[in-house]
Amino acid sequence: MTIDYPDLYIRGGWTRPAGDSTIPVISPTTEQRIGSVPEGTETDIDDAVDAARAALTEWASWTAAQRAEVLNRFADELESRAEDTSTRVSSQNGMPITLARQFEGGFPPVLLRYYADMAAKQEDEIRPGMLGGSTLVTRSPIGVVGAIVPWNVPQAITFLKLAPALAAGCTVVLKPSPETVLDAFLMAEAAIAAGLPAGVVNIVPGGRDLGAYLVAHPGIDKVSFTGSTGAGRAIGRTCGELLRPVTLELGGKSAAVVLDDADLAANIESFYAATLLNNGQICWLGTRVLAPRSRYDEIVDTITDLAKGLSVGDPLSDTTQMGPLVSSRQRDRVEGYIEKGRSDGGRVTTGGRRPADAEYGWFVEPTVFADVETGHTIAQEEIFGPVLSVIPYTDETEAVTIANHSDYGLGGSRNRRPRTRRPIRPGHRQRNSRNQRLLQRSDRPLRRHQEQRPRPRTRTRGPRELPAAQEHLPRRAMTPRVRPCDTTHGRTHFHTRERKTPATNEELAMLDFAVTWAPFGGGSTNCAP
Questions:
Q1: pLDDT tens-digit profile of 322-331?
Q2: What pTM value is reported for the model?
Q3: 455 in a structural domain
Q4: Which helix (H) or strand (E) holds 393?
Q5: Half-sphere exposure of residue 334, counting CA atoms within 13 Å on the CB side?
Q6: Of 3, 138, 371, 430, which cross-links 35 as Cys (Cβ 3.0–4.6 Å)?
Q7: How far apart are alpha carbons 210 and 304 in whole angstroms?
Q8: Which residues are catalytic?
């Protein structure tokens, strides 16, 4: 049975598209068509933006408590569809169903309730002015948000954008990736059932050209994009020319540092979650594994055994740990990097080919490269597949140098008993990550799935953003009071509180930009709006 949608979700209901083209949805497991949706056009984007602008004034005028009531109903409707959502995502992008139940089915309603509750508790502030008197700090929605989401973790990333935007009083035009659209339309069904006001959320699927049109649309006030670095650069240029606020979460080539006293075998499930989760299709995964020369062969053997032991197969099976890649194009890309790794001198210890027993499906075996040098292509470029490069180092100083020898700064992890901190520059850190143990416990609350430490080192309790900028610094060094708002709160001014210890040079240097992080999407550095 296929799932076919003839209409787009605009103005709170189903709307006939302007064009006749459709987007076929192909299963990466069977290579068969499993559904379709209309392919959006520029006319459809115009219609969606008009709907969002028409809805903005009333939605923004509601109290936060009124919006929270609707968002909580929306969360309830999503929760009732959680298993269906998880199945649709797994069927479209190959995510193992056990992971999809956590990320795609479970996380969106948690996010909606979290931000709805947070927004309802926000209050205006009065604080001393920089030149005397008092300053009234208020928060208002930035306006219409253009949100573009990728295919790898579509629903979780959608709601990392959607939940804070809606709670703040923004309206949204969402462009999902063509590879994962059926889950977005199921979300639209939940929005209708929850009574979300017309035009508050609008969904128009399409490719890069449609995304570029949405980004440059004069009716958009803020852009939030998660995707490739190349596309992000283009979006950044466009928004820079328009002086339009933008949040970009782009690619990664993170380092997983195994230190000399690590018990990797005892933490192998956590290591898997930090390096190979979701078929290697997560931006913050530590696909560069740094191992001490004194234990290099031992660690390579341990990682090789891990990769060999993973269950590869149908993502809808509860026993599968590694599903197919999202598309034939993505499989070709990954296989190209594997061949490049071989030609550069890397040694494949396991994998490197398609599974022998897979008659169809876009599968690639989990692959481990040893004898990789930090300058090799596979150690520098994002592959976005189940390919690990194990790079040797002599001491911690060299490990830090190798970890920082990258164009990316998205994430990082280390395996060792906590002892010392070194100046590695990831967007977030994991230490002996607890990902896998949490993923195995479906009865546990969905909170953080890593021990993450965004820069500057301000303690957080959920998916939050650090302040974009300080209006002033008092005599004593200030550190931000975190308010967990997405940058869709672009017109928010955050206040600060004094602390007794001086700020570090790193913290002071960080005051002019914000760091956004999320439990599943990793951390990204964004220019302040």
A1: 999 999 999 9
A2: 0.80
A3: no
A4: strand 387-393
A5: 27
A6: 3
A7: 42
A8: 249
